[in-house]
Structures are given as structure tokens and as C-alpha cells.
Specification:
The protein is of the alpha/beta class and about 130 residues long. It has 5 helices and 5 strands. Strand 1, helix 1 and strand 2 form a beta-alpha-beta unit. The chain is globular, with a radius of gyration of 13 Å.
């Protein structure tokens, strides 16, 4: 069981709900959620989660733009980020990781493996 907090950012309510259940039930995490990049910035500043799991493709502010905003703010610059992406090509994943994120998980993800995949990407041990 973990006492860590994770922020889940996705514009799709179903994805946020499934991911939250995974982290709460399987990992014992405290879960925060945001449906947009702007909301995620506010939550990350206020709550200082140990990690952010975010979708790459969102309206208004996509994942790469959100990562740049988080990295530019001293209050959120050190929060590790793992991306959820529909892009499965190795080069696409490499490009995303080159942005300074800790990992990328391909959608659709396996709910039974989500927490372990995020922990592995973050080097938190499983």
C-alpha cells in the first residue's frame, strides 16, 4: 500500500474513473483528478502530487503543452509525469520521453497493470 498522491489528467471521465479506481484499490494511492490542462496546473500547484498521469491528446491544452507548463513553474517542475498515449510506435514514445517525462503508457491500457506500469516508469519498484 502506498501513501503517495497521483494526479490523473484526462478529458474523458471514464478514463479518469478507471485509472482512479486502479490507483485507489490496487495501489492504495490518494487520487486527484483534472479534466483539462488548466485544471491540472492548478491542482498540481495546490496539492503537489508525487506524480502526474496525463493523456497526450486533450482539447485546449494537449499533454506536451501541459508538460512544458509544469516544467516552467518552480512549484511543479520536479513532479514526475507519465503519459497516456494512443501512439504505439517506438519513435513516438521516444519523442514523448525526450520531453522530460518519465514514461509513456499506451492506450488502451490494462487496468490490472496500470499501477505497476506507472510505478515501473517512475522507478518506484513494484
Amino acid at each position: 500500500m502506498s501513501d503517495r498522491t497521483v494526479l490523473i489528467v484526462d478529458d474523458e471521465p471514464d478514463i479518469r474513473e478507471i485509472a482512479a479506481l486502479c490507483f485507489e484499490l490496487a495501489g492504495g494511492y490518494r487520487v486527484l483528478s483534472a479534466r483539462s490542462g488548466q485544471e491540472a496546473i492548478a491542482v498540481a500547484r495546490a496539492e503537489q502530487p508525487e506524480a502526474v498521469l496525463m493523456d497526450v491528446m486533450m482539447p485546449e491544452m494537449d499533454g506536451p503543452t501541459l508538460v512544458r507548463h509544469l516544467r516552467a513553474d518552480t512549484a511543479t517542475a520536479r513532479i514526475p509525469v507519465v503519459l497516456l498515449t494512443a501512439k504505439a510506435l517506438p519513435q513516438d514514445r521516444y519523442d514523448l520521453q525526450a520531453m522530460g517525462v518519465q514514461g509513456a503508457i499506451v492506450k488502451p491500457f490494462d487496468p490490472l497493470r496500470l499501477v505497476a506500469s506507472v510505478e515501473e516508469a517512475l522507478g518506484w519498484g513494484v
